[in-house]
Design brief:
- Helices cover about 60% and strands about 10% of the residues.
- It is an alpha+beta fold and about 775 residues long.
- The strands form two sheets. Strands 1, 2, 3, 4, 5, 6 and 7 form a seven-stranded mixed sheet that branches.
- The radius of gyration is 28 Å and the shape is flat.
- The N and C termini lie far apart (about 70 Å).
- Bound molecules: flavin-adenine dinucleotide.
- Flavin-adenine dinucleotide binds next to β1, β3, α17 and α18.
């Protein structure tokens, strides 16, 4: 007997038997979610020893000339057309000219390949476009976003038959069809796979001919673009009781295209998501017949809908909402920095108060971090990766952090942020925050189950291989595969234990770091935390096995650590890719120190709450012998970060680059944002004059002219700047009659239907 077969038969085999009960088992939907997409930098983090040279060698995301021209041309032009206040509060929709522009300039066809008449843009270009739109009108951004993310277009590109692609993609590219995607139903939200919407295989009449098809009954809600969609991508459970297409009764989740003009389809009613007016609403169908050809991918793809959805989401989740959120964070930093500079209380700009600086610093650092992570993730997508765990991290972290930024912006603006009207540039974003948090996987469930739960299996170097081996119906083959994976895992764990222990006890002093100038020390800490993470994950899986899945609080903390590691890597890479700008170092330091404090606190919480106490004690000794020690960014760093967004400096430019900057010249009308930009520029310009007055201890302009501290010309400049500030800090007020409703939404006789009414309408 060879050495290797002795190991397999006498040592691995008993472990194999025990592991079959201990390791988490996967449901079909979980397996399909885990198999969707691939792994990328997350795998390096899970392995516990990230290769920093590899990270820095990833090519940064870049726009082609054509993409740049589109961003600077049609996207700018489109933004300038939009009056977000009137869209939201008067028209309750985009105006017809905006709809036409979106369709004819192919905003709905960013991901459709050129051969079908689309723009065929990269993930990064798609992201930049959504980012710019989001910085001006959430309604426009969401409207443009949906046809380019999970929905008929993407599903057809990935899984459609040639005939379906040839028919539908050019129509979608030309804007002749408006798509939407219906997955969520009243009963099935986060647990979307539990839907009761059904399709039954049967024969029926379509366009005058008897064909094999599906009779559908469904009730969906919350469907974006649903009320005006001409084609609905529908997820339902397919049944084949007469075995017309195979021998299974219950075929499973299937995706099909349903033209919304078909008899039995009810569509058109609208929801008002947080009083936003992008098209969103319920729809339902009663005995709607579609031919089998309408199943996305044809009859070969029946029952594979969940896998298709997960696969599409693996990439898409990393683009739309992270771009919207990164835009929200940059926008919040931009306007709040400017406002804190122009708004004075107690005779000083509020930006001078330390308590305000604390918020400004967080705003600046969050804008830096989210945009770094957005760019790095888009670069990975453009290189052909579909990293499902990374995109889930991006979706939940970006939307959550945008909420913090928007709240900071509101708090610093005080009443100016709260009073609604055309002069308010924050209210719409504030109302929009929970939308991003809820859609594409509500954040609580994403944090607790997906970021780490799927990551632990998907991105771990050995676990998925072990689980697949354990579930292999061919036991001999399974044992062989398990033997290989298990002993690889053991070697990996021993190496990791030594690494984690050594790095924890030396404070990461000798941990690996690339030659990265002033940022090298942060890489050492990340190396330290990555090895601690990998070891803690292994010990948790070993001691809790499948039970870890139910320990959502523990999993969520692991998810936070993984997210912090990923986002920190992105911030360091951004600094490197942008030529290691000294002025940006405080932002990097803020991001790193905040991240290390969170990582250390989460490790401490995991150890304090870990249910198997001996493992907790072991973890304490191995990875955190001295407890959490990092306290977050220092006051000095916060002051420096705050200064970046209250000064007109290159670092501020880098933070806000390519946002839509409103101006009267661009849009032909005065709005809150253009007034703020103007007042900020004026305030910065007259600062040297004000400094002279300050040094001469004179506040009154006339007095300053009289005593020749400033010239008469400078006095005019000061008055002009003061007028600009007065205009920018103004808020709206309305005559009572302006607020008596002429709107369809607020009239007393408007009828609102409930889910129950919709359900009974669907059943009638
Ligand atoms: C404005 C808007 C637009 C949308 N657009 C579309 C669309 O175009 N197409 C479409 O199909 N759907 C769409 N949705 C639906 C969206 O994806 C769902 O709202 C989302 O999946 C959550 O479902 P739910 O709202 O029913 O919340 P629920 O599933 O009821 O969840 C409630 C809470 O419980 C938490 N939770 C659930 N399960 C767990 C768990 N196991 N562990 C911990 N926490 C858990 C959730 O995180 C959430 O916080 C949209 C929703 C909104 C609000």
């Amino acid at each position: 007997m060879s050495k290797s077969s002795f190991r397999r038969d006498w040592i691995t085999k008993p472990i194999f038997r025990v592991a079959q009960h201990a390791l988490p088992t996967l449901s079909d939907t979980e397996r399909e979610a885990i198999e969707a997409g691939d792994v990328w930098w997350d795998a390096d983090l899970f392995a516990g020893n990230p290769d920093w040279d590899k990270l820095l060698a990833f090519a940064p995301a870049r726009l082609s000339d054509e993409e740049k021209a589109f961003l600077d041309g049609p996207v700018e032009e489109f933004c300038a057309m939009l009056d977000d206040w009137r869209i939201n509060w008067e028209w309750h929709d985009l105006p017809p000219a905006a709809w036409d522009y979106l369709k004819t300039r192919k905003f709905f066809a960013m991901i459709i390949p050129k051969e079908y008449g689309g723009l065929g843009f990269s993930a990064y270009a798609h992201s930049e476009i959504i980012r710019k739109l989001s910085s001006h009108s959430l309604c426009a951004a969401v409207t443009a976003m949906v046809p380019n993310s999970l929905g008929p277009g993407e599903l057809l590109i990935k899984f459609g038959t040639k005939a379906q692609q040839d028919y539908w993609l050019p129509r979608l590219a030309r804007g002749e069809e408006i798509p939407c995607f219906g997955l969520t139903s009243p009963e099935a939200g986060s647990d979307a796979a539990s839907m009761i919407d059904s399709g039954v295989v049967c024969r029926g009449t379509h366009e005058g001919r008897e064909v094999l098809g599906i009779r559908l009954n469904w009730h969906k809600r919350y469907i974006t673009l649903g009320p005006i969609a001409t084609v609905l991508g529908l997820a339902f459970k397919l049944h084949d009781p007469d075995h017309l297409i195979g021998d299974r009764d219950n075929i499973g989740i299937t995706l099909a295209l349903v033209p919304t003009h078909l008899p039995g389809v009810s569509i058109g009613r609208r929801h008002l998501p947080a009083l936003h007016v992008f098209q969103n609403g319920p729809n339902w169908g009663k005995d709607v017949f579609i031919p089998m050809d309408n199943v996305i991918g044809g009859v070969d793809q029946v029952g594979k809908g969940w896998k298709m959805l997960m696969s599409a989401l693996a990439a898409g989740r990393g683009i739309s909402l992270p771009s919207l959120s990164a835009a929200g964070a940059s926008f919040a930093a931009n306007v709040t920095g400017a406002y804190a500079r122009i708004r004075e209380q107690f005779h000083v700009p509020i930006a001078k108060f330390e308590a305000i600086q604390e918020r400004l610093a967080r705003l600046a650092a969050t804008a830096y971090l989210l945009d770094a992570a957005r760019r790095m993730t888009c670069a990975a997508l453009d290189e052909g990766h579909h990293p499902a765990v990374v995109t889930a991290i991006m979706k939940s972290q970006a939307t959550d952090r945008m909420r913090v930024s928007v709240n900071d912006a509101m708090d610093v603006h005080g009443g100016k942020g709260i009073i609604e009207g055309p002069l308010n540039y924050l209210g719409s974003l504030y109302r929009g925050v929970p939308i991003g948090i809820t859609v594409e996987g509500a954040n609580i469930v994403t944090r607790a189950l997906i970021q780490f739960g799927q990551g632990a299996i998907r991105s771990h170097p050995y676990l998925l291989k072990e689980m697949m081996a354990l579930q292999d119906p061919d036991r001999a083959r399974g044992l062989d595969a398990f033997d290989q994976a298990f002993w690889g895992h053991v070697g990996h764990s021993i190496a990791n234990t030594c690494r984690a222990f050594g790095r924890a006890w030396t404070g990461g002093l000798f941990a690996p770091a690339p030659k990265a100038g002033a940022s090298a020390r942060y890489y050492r800490q990340l190396s330290r935390h990555a090895s601690a993470f990998a070891l803690a994950v292994d010990l948790s899986l070993l001691s809790l096995g499948g039970g870890l899945k139910r320990r959502e609080m523990i999993s969520a903390r692991f998810g936070d650590i993984l997210s912090e590691l990923y986002l920190s890597c992105a911030a360091l890479k951004r600094w490197n890719d942008e030529g290691r700008q000294d002025d940006d170092l405080p932002l990097v330091e803020y991001c790193m120190e905040a991240s290390f404090a969170t990582i250390e606190t989460r490790f401490d919480e995991i150890i304090a709450n870990f249910p198997v106490r001996p493992v907790a004690w072991l973890l304490r000794v191995l990875i955190q012998p001295f407890g959490p020690r990092r306290r977050g960014p220092s006051d000095r760093v916060m002051e420096q970060c705050a200064a970046i967004i209250v000064d007109a400096c290159p670092a501020r430019e880098r933070l806000t680059v390519d946002l839509f900057k409103s101006s009267v010249a661009k849009s032909g009308r005065v709005d809150g944002l253009s007034l703020l930009e103007h007042a900020f520029a004026q305030t910065v310009a007259v600062q040297p004059i004000r400094d002279r007055m300050h040094d001469a201890r004179v506040r009154d302009i006339e007095q300053a002219v009289k005593q020749r501290t400033i010239t008469a010309e400078e006095a005019v400049k000061l008055k002009t700047a003061a007028d600009a500030v007065a205009a920018a800090i103004a808020v709206d007020d309305f005559a009572p009659e302006d607020l008596t409703s002429r709107s369809a939404f607020t009239q007393g006789d408007v009828s609102s239907q409930t889910t129950a009414q919709n359900r009974s309408a669907a059943a009638e």
